[in-house]
Each structure stands twice: as C-alpha cells, then as structure tokens.
Amino acid sequence: MGEVIEFLSGGYRFIKGVSQYSGGVAALPGFRLERVRFTHPLPLQEGFAEIERIIAAAGRPLTAFAACELRSPAPFTEEGFVAFNSTYTETLKAWGLLDTGLNPVARSNVCPQIAPPPVPSIYAFSFTVPSVEAKPSFVISGSAEVPEGHAAYRDHIISRGDLSPQGLRTKAQFVLEEMERRASTLGFGWENATAVQVYTVHDLYPFLADEIVKRGAARAGLTWHYNNPPVVDLEYEMDLRGVAAEHVV
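Now predict its structure.
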C-alpha cells in the first residue's frame, strides 16, 4: 500500500490496497467525510440497503460510499475470509465502486468476543458530502499484525502465537507503525485523528503508555473494542479517523 489515487465520482482519494479494501480514504477538496453508526449492527445486506437509503437521502451517488466498519460472528479461517470478501465486494461492484478495477473503500472487520452478531453485519460507514469550508477528513482502514498482499496470512503474522507481554507489544508496534504509514501517505498524523480504535481481547496496559500514548495515538482518547481481528491467529488491530461529523441512527 502506498499509491494514492483520486476517485472523482466518490469525492475522495484512496490508498491503493488489496482487492477487498483500500488502505484508507481522504475527502477531496470541496467534500467532507461523514460517519454514520447504527445503534445495532445490521446484517450485511440489510445494512447495505440502509446505507443506500441514507446516501440517496443525502443526494449523493452510491460511489460516495467511502468506508465500512464490519462485525463478524467469529474469526474466519483464511478460506472463509476469502469467501466472505467475495460476497462483500458484490455490492461494491453493483454500486460502481470497482469500475476502475480497484477497490477504493476503506474497511475494518472485527469480531466481538461477547455478544457477537449471528451473521456478518455492518456497524458503521462513512461517505462524502459536498462542503465548501470543510476541514480535511480521512478514515484509515484497520490493520492487524500482518503485512498485506500475501497469498496467506498465517505464515506472515508478527509473533504468531506469542501472547506474552513482549509478544503483544511487538504486535502493537507493527500495527501502530502501519497506522502511521497509511495516515502519512494521505498527509495526516495522530494529531489529526478525532478517534483511534483498538480491537483486541488482550491486556493493553503493559504497553499503553509507552507505545500508544507517548507517540500521540491517544490525543483524542482511545476506544477499546473487546473484539478479535477477522482471521484466526490475529490478535491485535487498530484503525483511526479524522471526521468532524458523526451520527448514530
């Protein structure tokens, strides 16, 4: 991930990523990103239908859909994750988001440890709206402790199976650095974030101060979701955003 591409029909630019999501998005001049969170996660197709309604009501094309936050019942096997992504991207294709041959939409997909949804569901999404005086806004896709772009995750997971304090610290360091790399690619840093989210069921405290807070990643606080990343053997994930307008529906 590194190349930034303008997606003019959506009103945003994105970091070229993998087939299932981009590395992150930022609104183009004249637009701002707005985030909408559902009170309760909606099953995938029901959620997409509600997103379509909300975007249409705002007078925006479906290509304005820029980022998606998903919740799944449990971590997938690698084969299961591939199958899920195939289903997920069908809607993006139907909405014209894949017409360039690339996927511009940022994404996080995580799995609540307690009271998970019965089926893959949509927790929140972001889309662009026109705004002449808007401050720059962005959403960075979630990343767990594994480099993107490999055919299989398992062989490349950072400190795979090591749940010791040092193992978890090493995982967190990789993810924090990846968040910084993606944000800087779009011209942002921790100081621009309005929200930083972490997804893990493990203890953050041993490295919270010196790895997260000291580097500025908690300037706006830190939202900890007691969730697992989406693939078996991944243990720690983060995402961040700089979005001034947020709604709960």
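The mean pLDDT is 95.
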